[in-house]
Each structure stands twice: as C-alpha cells, then as structure tokens.
Design brief:
- The structure is a single chain.
- The protein contains twelve helices and twelve strands.
- It is an alpha/beta fold.
- The chain has two domains: 4-209, inorganic pyrophosphatase (n-terminal core) (Alpha-Beta Complex), CATH 3.90.1640; 216-334, Diaminopimelate Epimerase, Chain A, domain 1 (Roll).
- The longest helix has 15 residues, at 30-44.
- The radius of gyration is 20 Å and the shape is globular.
- The N and C termini lie far apart (40 Å).
C-alpha cells in the first residue's frame, strides 16, 4: 500500500479540480493502457481535467477500451503534447519508473518541468523523479495497484463498471491470465470485486486473446518456425527480421505474447524474442523466464533494459545476427 502521509497529501491535491496528465510507458501494453484509462475515468468523475498522454501509438487490440479514442499520442503532435505537460498541475506516471521509458523526446520535455509527479508502478529499482511514489514489486500489475490506490483514497465507490473494466484488462494481461507467480489470493479478491461491479470478464478475454487477423497468425507461424533451442542451457529464442515483419504486414501489437511460447517447451527456463526494427535502428528484445533465473538482472547487465525477475525487455543497436551471436555467447557464459 502507499504510505499514509503520501495518501493524505494526494487527497488534499485532488480535493479541488486540477489539470492532470496521465502517462504510460512507450509501446504501452494492456497494463499501461488499462491503468492510465482507469485512473482517467476515476479522475473525470471528480471533475478534474484529465488526459492520457501516450508517448506513441498503442496496439489495435486495446482500441476497444473505454475512451481509448480520447488518448493523446505525444509522437503525433509533440507541440500539443508538450503544451499539455507544461500546463498540467499534476502528472501521473503509470507502469514505468524511469523517465527513459517514454522515449528520448518526451523524456527531455519531462525533465524540464517543475511539476508534481505521482508514480504508481511495480517494476524494480524506481528512479527518484516523483514527489509521491507507490512502488511495490510484489504486485503483479499496475492496475491492481490503481485499484488499491483508489480504495486508499476512500473513493472505492467511484470504481464503476468503466473503471473496473480498465483495471481488469491490466490485471488479466500482466498476470498471463492469472497464471504468473505474482497472482495472489488478493488479486483474485480484487477481480471478484470487479466482476461484482459489472465487468464482463469473458467478453474482455475475447477482445484480448480470441480475436486475431490472418496476417498475425501467419506471423506467429513464422516466429515459431524461427525458434531455436539451446537445450544444454535450458534456453530457447525466436527471431523476426524486418523483412518478415513487412511480409506479414505486421501491425503494432501483433508480436505481443509470442515470446511466451518459448517457455512452453519442456526443460526450458529462459526464452527471448528478437525483433528487428529498421526505423529505430535497433533490435527489440523481450525476455521471459521461470523459476529463479532473473531476466531483469540479465537484461540490465547485457541489453540496457530491465523489468521483473521473470519478464523483462531490452534492446541492441547491433544487427540482428550480431545480437543473436552475442546472446548465445552470454547465455553460454552465464549458464555454464
């Protein structure tokens, strides 16, 4: 839970209408969009002028979320986004704890601001940019933290079906449909309460996981064909080149979740996906593990990233083949 003095201070801040901007991390996922939109709907009920300002576009499979059409995309109109930030009384940062996670351009703007920042996040090693911080790695999702944050403000009555729908979305996506270790009995009690408040859980599941495009399924097929095993190191990995992404007309969000297939193989405790991005000149990397292998530390040490013990991201500025060769070398070294 957030500490009591901070909660009391935030209660005072929110007691009168404010101009509030809510920011998810770059390339926002279900938890980032769910938590920011849940907080947006909660604040709007209290007559605040609230806006969700996403660093870049969010994936289409989240475009059904209530009021997602009102999200302002910083990358599409930097001038408008900058002005909004400069005029804000309060800035919430959700589902990230280091400003570099919003991208260089937006980070540069945020660093110039003398504003009150409030961070709600569940990743390790938070930076100290926020005046008020609710940071706890024991939570499986930022959405679950937003639920408790609202309850701590003694405003749980404002968690209506709309707010609950957004919160449920982040919990179900970041928990791997309730199968990841950070899913607790409290998580299930929260979800039960959300369903009591009107959440249509099966409909949300259908929107998130059971609707796909032909191209996305073809891309998944290619990704699985590209999977390589390093059985003696209990490791697997998948690669997708820019050429392959273009061939299957890859859209934002189409590669979401593919990395998890690598862990379904018997005997594998570390997996990764390497996705070439020619526009940004990088290879984007997602790591997953099970058991005690810490991919947060692994990514921080070798691929300029971070995240959680069993789920993390990173990147490489080397070519795709060079990145793969480096990964194989490091795995052999680390997992001797």
């Amino acid at each position: 839970m957030m500490n009591e003095p901070d909660i009391e201070a935030i209660k005072v801040l929110l007691a009168s209408p404010k101009k509030i901007t809510i920011i998810p991390h770059r390339n926002p996922d279900g938890d980032a969009m769910g938590s920011t939109l849940a907080l947006y709907h909660f604040l709007v009920q209290q007559q605040h002028d609230a806006v969700v300002l996403s660093p870049n576009e969010f994936p289409d499979f989240l475009a059904w979320l209530p009021s997602s059409d009102k999200v302002v995309v910083f990358e599409k109109d930097i001038e408008k986004g900058t002005q909004r930030l400069q005029e804000s009384d309060l800035i919430f940062t959700l589902d990230f704890n280091a400003l570099h996670r919003v991208g260089d351009t937006m980070e540069a703007v945020l660093k110039t601001l003398d504003k009150t920042f409030i961070m709600i996040d569940h990743h390790q090693f938070p930076d100290g940019f926020a005046k008020y911080t609710f940071s706890d790695t024991s939570y499986g999702s930022t959405c679950e933290m937003v639920y408790h944050f609202i309850q701590q403000l003694d405003l749980g009555n404002l968690i209506d079906k709309t707010v609950a729908t957004c919160i449920y979305t982040g919990i179900v996506t970041d928990s791997g449909s309730f199968r990841f270790p950070a899913t607790t009995s409290t998580t299930h009690r929260v979800v039960a309460d959300l369903i009591d408040r009107g959440v249509e859980n099966s409909a949300i599941h259908n929107q998130l996981f059971d609707t796909s495009s032909y191209n996305r399924l073809q891309l998944l097929g290619r990704a699985l064909q590209n999977m390589k095993l390093m059985p003696e190191y209990k490791t697997s990995y998948i690669t997708l080149s820019q050429k392959e992404l273009d061939h299957f007309n890859c859209q934002k969000g189409d590669t979401e979740g593919i990395v998890n297939y690598g862990l379904t193989i018997d005997g594998i405790d570390l997996t990764a996906i390497f996705i070439e991005n020619k526009d940004e000149g990088i290879v984007k990397i997602s790591f997953r593990s099970q058991g005690s292998f810490d991919v947060n530390q692994f990514s921080r040490s070798y691929f300029g990233g971070g995240g959680h013990i069993n789920a993390a991201g990173g990147k490489s500025v080397k070519s795709l083949p060079e990145t793969i060769a480096e990964f194989e070398r490091i795995v052999k070294e680390v997992k001797k």
